[in-house]
Amino acid sequence: MTIQVYTHLQQGREWLVKYRGKKPILACILGFTATGLIPGISAAGATPKDRQYTAIADGEFLINGVCDRRIHPLPPLNVGVSPVFITRSVVEGLQIPVYLFNAGLPQPPAVKAIDLGGIAANCLTSGAALPKQIVRNLFAIGKEWGEKLAKLSPATYLIISECVVGGTTTAAAILTGLGIDSQGKVNSSHPNCNHLQKQRIVEKGLVNAGLFPLPLELDPLDLVAAVGDPMQIVAAGMAIAASRFCGVMLAGGTQMLAVCALMEATSNFYNEPVLWENVVVGTTRWVAEDPTGDTVGLAKSIGKIPLLATQLSFANSQYSQLRAYERGYVKEGVGAGGCAIASHLYQNWTVPHLLAAIEELVESYQ
């Protein structure tokens, strides 16, 4: 088995059958939140200074792969290696078209990216992460790009991925703000999720935003402006619009489940129809079966969405930084799980085939 369906089994299996043999398009949305600079909040960069450049470096590697001139080398991790190696190996091997988006970064990427006019978010503890008008603009332009990309690929599917350090914490804030119990269920790049730290940060942000206790009716765009990050609202708009024309795979774990919840809330609040039968969340086995979270339970509480995961394993890898994934480090990011699923669907890559492609890339980078 290369792909497992964890929730909404029939709907998920039908989606897989529909898009087997289809070559997808990959959209990768880069964003930044100062939440990612809180000490200990993320392992996606050994230090807060490293984490300022994680998304920029991952975006550069996603586009260029291994090359002699690296403007932003991949930041060092305490343990493991960036999940962009998984994504890039699939993109390179299957020649998948990639659209890189800057939703809001401290500085522009060193490679060609579509600038959406966003800004980096303040720490969510401020309760004022983003200006409301920026959030509105990002939602609108996300919808525009979702329709545009979907019309380029009406017979196939769009993979929507992200890179936002600290994004599982902003995801927890969005889920909590939407009334979804995420405590103890979200994931992180740490082997043991830092649930208590996340909970305290989320509560502080909601209190400072005047959203605790939660109001009976809340504009989801106000919630993103208070405690979210720029990627979330772009991904929600993109997925809503794309679902009307083609398949959509939201590639990620906690962050993309939060995007699903945001899609539903935004759809209801602004009367934006979503064709849910076209949408799935695709992630890695390390996220779906994370013993320190409850991804499956979280997916079920959001509803409407099949959760799929590649069964990729690094247990037999010759590289210790890949074997670290089996101990709970890193787990997911930059659409790694979604692209691994795409490799199985499009070219029937087996787990050993995919592992060999990833190891070849790791070897050539060193």
Q: Outline the low-pLDDT stretches.
A: none
The CATH level-2 architecture is identified as 3-Layer(aba) Sandwich
In total, the number of domains comes to: 1
CATH topology title: Rossmann fold
Instruction: Kindly report the average pLDDT value.
Output: 95
CATH homologous superfamily heading: Nicotinate-nucleotide-dimethylbenzimidazole phosphoribosyltransferase (CobT), large domain
The CATH class turns out to be: Alpha Beta
Total beta strands: 8
Structural class: alpha/beta
Overall shape: it is globular
Features:
Rossmann fold; 366 residues; single chain; alpha/beta
Description:
The chain is α/β, with parallel strands linked by helices. The chain has one domain (3-361): Nicotinate-nucleotide-dimethylbenzimidazole phosphoribosyltransferase (CobT), large domain (Rossmann fold, 3-Layer(aba) Sandwich). Helix content is 45%, strand content 11%. It contains 15 helices and eight strands. Strands 1-8-7-6-5-2-3-4 form an eight-stranded mixed beta sheet, sandwiched between helices. The two termini are 31 Å apart. The model has no long low-confidence stretch (mean pLDDT 95).
Briefly summarize what is shown.
The protein has helices at residues 9-19, 48-51, 54-64, 84-94, 132-152, 167-177, 195-208, 220-227, 230-242, 254-270, 285-288, 295-302, 320-323, 336-347, 351-365; strands at residues 3-5, 25-31, 98-104, 114-115, 157-163, 247-251, 279-284, 307-310. The protein is of the alpha/beta class and 366 residues long.
Give the topology.
Blueprint: E1 3-5, H1 9-19, E2 25-31, H2 48-51, H3 54-64, H4 84-94, E3 98-104, E4 114-115, H5 132-152, E5 157-163, H6 167-177, H7 195-208, H8 220-227, H9 230-242, E6 247-251, H10 254-270, E7 279-284, H11 285-288, H12 295-302, E8 307-310, H13 320-323, H14 336-347, H15 351-365
Parallel strand pairs: 2-3, 2-5, 3-4, 5-6, 6-7, 7-8
Antiparallel strand pairs: 1-8
Helix pairs in contact: 3-4, 4-14, 4-15, 5-8, 5-9, 6-7, 6-10, 9-10, 10-12
